[in-house]
Amino acid sequence: MLHIILLILKIIGIVLLLILGLLLLALICILFVPVRYKGKGQWYDEKHGKIIVSWLLHIISIHITYDNGETDVKYKLFGIKFNPWNKNKKKKVKNKKIQQEKQQEKQADTFKEPEDDTPRTITLTEPKKDTGKKEVTVQEPITYKKKKWKSPFEFIRKIRFKIRAFCDKLKKINERKNNFLAFLREEDTKIAWKVGKEELIKLIKYILPTKLELYMKFGFEDPSNTGKLLGIIYMFYGFTKKFQIYPDFENVVFEGETTFKGRIRVIRLLVVFLKLWRNEPIKNTIERAKQI
User: Fold this and answer.
1) In contact, 189 and 288? CB cutoff 8 Å
2) How far is residue 72's CA from residue 48's CA, in Å, rounded to a whole number?
């Protein structure tokens, strides 16, 4: 009997260890296996594009295509297409059909004529004879309500009250403005802003494609906007041979083509979040901002 109990406990322990191992493996995959994305597109007279997002050797993937204003999204699991939103769409279609059928039935009922086989009788009434007596109508006297005239002192009191309320609002706005300016001048706020900006720039650079080939010709009505976009592009990627960028400061134009690849690991996002969360100046800044 004891041998059987020990065997059952052994089997239960093995099953629990397998479950824990699978959970640990899933957690490691989520944290360290990157989500990869790649795409290509071109925009001339016609616009086409395609983006593929995949995870864990394409076990799960999303395919997004764009063709002249029309988008199509496909979900794949082990290469088999599926749509997690199909059930909701079917329910909505069924509900719409049921509502349309009910409305049609109501309209049909309203247009039905009542079927009544009973004979209809018509009664004729003779006009009343004139008796020669005249009817006298008595009008009730109309009474007008007198308007109550308010004293000028009450009118002046209301104006004074409104002016005081307006002045109080201005004082509150001025206090909030002063508190906000003092908040911006604090040392913790400056440190938090500096750390947050640095981490955000690093995160954007990490999320952006690691491989990018680009041909683009662009120009706006305002030449300064053309220069700003050019500066933003080179700020993140610098000057490379794979970039063929032609700014046009005289004409309005936007055309080109591109191919790109990139990856995102959840562990990297988690590390950035923990850095910001454990930073004391950022904590103090958040608490101070709640008090404003």
Assistant:
1) yes
2) 12
Helix (H, G, I), strand (E, B) or coil at 104: helix
- Other residues' Cβ atoms within 10 Å of the Cβ of residue 230: 15
38: three-class secondary structure by DSSP: strand
Backbone torsion region of residue 69, taken as left when φ is above 0, otherwise alpha when ψ lies between -120 and 50, otherwise beta: left
pLDDT in tens, 69-114: 899 999 999 888 888 776 555 556 566 677 777 777 766 665 544 4
Measure the CA–CA gap between 208 and 113, rounded to whole angstroms: 70
Contact assessment for residue 225 and residue 253, using Cβ atoms and an 8 Å cutoff: no
Q: CA gyration radius for the chain?
A: 39
Query: pTM higher than 0.70, yes or no?
Result: no
Coil vs helix vs strand at 105: helix
Alpha-carbon dihedral sign for residues 175, 180, 181, 186: positive
Residue 244's SS3 state is: strand
- Token pair recorded at residue 169: 């609002």
Residues 32 and 55 sit within 8 Å (Cβ to Cβ): no
The count of other CB atoms within 10 Å of the CB of residue 140 is 5
Cβ-Cβ contacts under 8 Å for 80 (sequence gap 6 or more): none
Distance CA 56, CA 51 (A): 17
